[in-house]
Structures are given as structure tokens and as C-alpha cells.
Design a protein that fits this description.
About 45% of the residues lie in helices and about 10% in strands. The protein is of the alpha+beta class and about 350 residues long. The chain has a 5-stranded antiparallel sheet with strand order 1-2-3-5-4, covered by helices on one side. Strands 6-8-9 form a 3-stranded antiparallel sheet. A two-stranded antiparallel ribbon has the order 7-10. Helix 4 (about 155-165) runs parallel beside helix 11 (about 295-315). The termini are far apart. It binds adenosine-5'-diphosphate, 2-acetamido-2-deoxy-1-O-phosphono-alpha-D-glucopyranose (GN1) and magnesium ion. 2-acetamido-2-deoxy-1-O-phosphono-alpha-D-glucopyranose binds near residues 233 and 256.
Length: about 350
């Protein structure tokens, strides 16, 4: 990112370029994130440029976050919600050089992870994401506009997979043949989703839609969850999106970037921790239909992520950044292994869900 551009953005926020240090930060796939450090003071901020290939209308993100931020300030003033700091002229984002930027407070003494090493962390994270779901249970989610149309619409994701298959090269298709067959094989997950998606007891709610573990900040000393971040996809959706992505990213000791599928196993005690943490907040709010879908949420999200990585591979890796040519295929294999594990351990997982529901 060009130095002059960042310094221009900093000016929009009233910072003098020569009084500020900045460096790239974090491991997110989508936005460019910078840590901003004010010299001669302890103030630190996070500056992010919004990825315009992904978010065609960044103003929608700003408007959604503002609506939720105002609602939470009114109803739960003590809740830590990392909203945007306005520019000097009061805008939620700075628009400089055709790029949209957002500034937030840097949460001090915080750390984020790509994998978890203690079930208590899974409990904490599930409770924090569940808390956001709970605090927004009475918020009218229809006010939120879609920042990415059809983001977690599994039907759309499957159609995009089919399109990528039509348009890809013979060589990519050959390399990915076993994964293409798996994507087709598991399409019963989509059929099942379609069978209940319009059920009246399956409400739309304000959902985070990206509850992967790197989007949770923990206190460095106590390892308690501090707050959730990465609010770009905060919009109306189904609870399975948030609970499912927790399963996808907390259950295994290795992240989606691990190419050795022999290392991809579900840690049962982390599953129990997720369910307990989430139900601690959402247990009294979920409908009966939703409670029946707790286990399904993991299948739905892991499958969706597998076909998203696979489609991107077939499209020539234009969405998820890669550090080597086959990385999105490796990520696909990793996610399909996780999905297979999920089915293999289904009986144990069902018992845990039932136990946790009874205890709640
Ligand atoms: P992306 O959309 O690219 O995933 P994120 O908003 O998740 O971007 O930010 C990337 C990383 O930057 C996070 O995983 C976290 O480590 C760090 N980060 C983001 N916002 C903050 C914040 N307000 N305080 C501290 N760290 C943050
Ligand atoms: C992206 O922004 P980040 O890295 O938290 C993606 C998620 C995927 C995730 C997979 C807007 O999340 O949907 O689950 O990568 N976000 C977007 O790691 O596409
Ligand atoms: Mg992120």
C-alpha cells in the first residue's frame, strides 16, 4: 500500500503523518489492516481499507455498523462494540483515492488467534458471539442491508460452484476431480437446508456472519473474550451461520491453511465448550426449530466454506489470497476432511448437544 495514500487517509482523521507510525497487522483474508501508533502517546488505532472486489458498496457496511452501534449504545451502553471513529468531517469512513477506509480503536492488551489451544477459549468465544446475537435478538434485522448479496445463501454458493466448473480449465478440473466429486456428493446438505429454510420458526436475525476465531479478541493476560471484531458482514441471516463458523474454526487444532489432512480432527471437548458457551447466551432465545439445527449448523458452514474455496480454486484463485498455486485446493481438502470427521463423530456430537440443551 502506498505510503502517500495512507498518510492522506491519516490526515482525514486529523493525524499529522510525521507523528504517526504504522505497520501491517493481522491475518485476515479480506481487508488490509494497519496498526496506527501515535508517537509520544499511548494511543493506538486500527486502520483498514475495505476490499472493493468483495464489498461493492462499502457505505452499506458503515450504515449497518452505525445502526447496530446506536442500538447497542441505547439498550446496552456497557457493551464493548468496536464501531467506527468518524473522520474530521463526521463521516463513518474516509474515501481517499477510490478506496474506503475505516478507523477503530485498537483494543489494548488484546490478542487474536487462528487456532485455539484450550477449550475454555472456545467457550469464551462462543459466549461472546452468542452475546452479540442475544443483545440483538429484539433488533429489527430487516433494517440491515446486505453487504455481500447472498453471502451465506448455500443455494447461491452451489450455483457459483457449478458456474466455476463450467468455466474452469481442463487442467484445474483434473487436479480438483476428487474434491469436485465430494462437492457433488455432499449436496444433500443443500437439499436439507432447502427443506426448512422457509420455516416460520427459523427467523432472520442480525448475525455477524464471520465468527471465525481470528475475529474474536481475547485478553492477553486472562484469556477472557473481550469483544468481537470484523463487522463487515453484520447483516440479517440465520443463527446457523454464526454457530456453524465457530465449529468450523474452533474444533480442529489446525486452521484451514493446514495442507496435511491427517492432522484434521475434531476435538470433542471443544465442541462441548462451543455449545455450552453459545447456549449460555442464546439458549432461552433459540426456537425449537433452531435448537434442532444446532448440529446441522456445523455441516452447513463447513460444506459452504469447502465449496467456496473449491470454486475460487477453479476460478483461478481470485478471491482468497494465496501464497502458493494449489493453496485453495489444499484448503478445500482440509475442509472436506473436517466435514467427513463431523459425520463420523455425529453420534457423539448429537449426544453432547442433547446433554447441553437439557442442562441449559
Ligand atoms: P479481515 O476482514 O481482513 O479479516 P479483521 O477486521 O478481522 O480483517 O482484522 C484483521 C486482524 O486485525 C484481526 O484478526 C485482529 O488480529 C486485528 N484487529 C482488527 N481490529 C482490531 C482491533 N480493534 N483491536 C485489535 N486488533 C484488531
Ligand atoms: C474471510 O475476512 P476474514 O478473513 O475474517 C471470508 C469468510 C470466510 C473466511 C475463511 C467477506 O473472512 O466468509 O469464512 O475468509 N469473508 C468474506 O477463512 O468473504
Ligand atoms: Mg477477520
Amino acid at each position: 500500500m502506498d505510503k502517500q495514500l495512507i498518510e492522506q487517509v491519516l490526515k482525514e482523521y486529523g493525524f499529522q503523518a510525521d507523528q504517526v507510525n504504522y505497520k501491517p497487522f493481522g491475518t485476515g483474508h479480506i481487508n488490509s489492516t494497519w496498526l496506527i501508533i501515535l508517537q509520544n502517546s499511548s494511543e493506538q488505532y486500527i486502520l483498514q481499507s475495505i476490499n472493493r472486489n468483495v464489498f461493492k458498496e462499502p457505505e452499506i457496511i458503515a450504515a449497518n455498523v452505525k445502526l447496530v452501534s446506536d442500538y447497542l449504545k441505547k439498550h446496552n451502553p456497557d457493551y464493548l462494540f468496536v464501531g467506527a471513529i468518524p473522520t474530521r468531517d463526521g463521516s463513518e469512513m474516509a474515501s481517499v483515492g477510490d478506496i474506503y477506509w475505516r478507523l477503530t480503536d485498537f483494543i489494548k492488551n488484546s490478542v487474536s488467534f487462528d487456532t485455539l489451544s484450550d477449550p475454555d477459549q472456545a467457550y469464551e468465544a462462543a459466549m461472546q458471539f452468542g452475546r452479540l446475537n442475544r443483545l440483538l435478538a429484539d433488533f429489527d434485522a430487516s433494517q440491515l442491508k446486505e453487504t455481500i448479496p447472498g453471502f451465506h445463501d448455500l443455494g447461491l454458493r452451489y450455483r457459483q460452484f457449478a458456474e466455476s466448473l463450467e468455466n474452469t480449465t481442463e487442467s484445474l478440473k483434473q487436479k480438483a476431480e476428487p474434491e469436485i466429486q465430494k462437492a457433488k456428493h455432499y449436496s444433500f446438505i443443500l437439499d436439507y437446508f432447502n427443506s426448512f429454510k422457509n420455516s416460520s420458526d427459523f427467523p432472520n436475525r442480525a448475525m455477524h456472519h464471520d465468527t471465525k476465531i481470528s475475529n474474536m479478541l481475547f485478553d492477553k493476560d486472562t484469556m477472557k473474550g473481550i469483544c468481537v471484531i470484523d463487522l463487515d458482514t453484520l447483516m440479517s441471516g440465520k443463527f446457523i451461520s454464526d454457530l456453524g463458523d465457530m465449529m468450523r474454526t474452533y474444533l480442529c487444532a489446525f486452521s484451514e491453511n493446514e495442507p496435511d489432512t491427517d492432522k484434521i480432527f475434531i476435538r470433542i471437548e471443544y465442541f462441548e465448550a462451543i455449545i455450552k458457551g453459545y447456549l449460555h447466551e442464546m439458549g432461552s432465545i433459540l426456537t425449537e426449530v433452531e435448537k434442532d439445527l444446532i448440529l446441522f449448523s456445523g455441516k452447513y458452514l463447513i460444506y459452504m466454506q469447502a465449496i467456496r474455496f473449491l470454486s475460487d480454486y477453479l476460478n483461478g484463485s481470485i478471491y482468497y489470497p494465496i501464497s502458493y498455486a494449489e493453496q485453495n485446493l489444499d484448503r478445500t481438502r482440509n475442509q472436506f476432511k473436517l466435514l467427513a470427521e463431523f459425520f463420523e463423530k455425529e453420534k457423539i456430537l448429537v449426544d453432547i448437544v442433547n446433554k447441553c440443551l437439557n442442562e441449559n
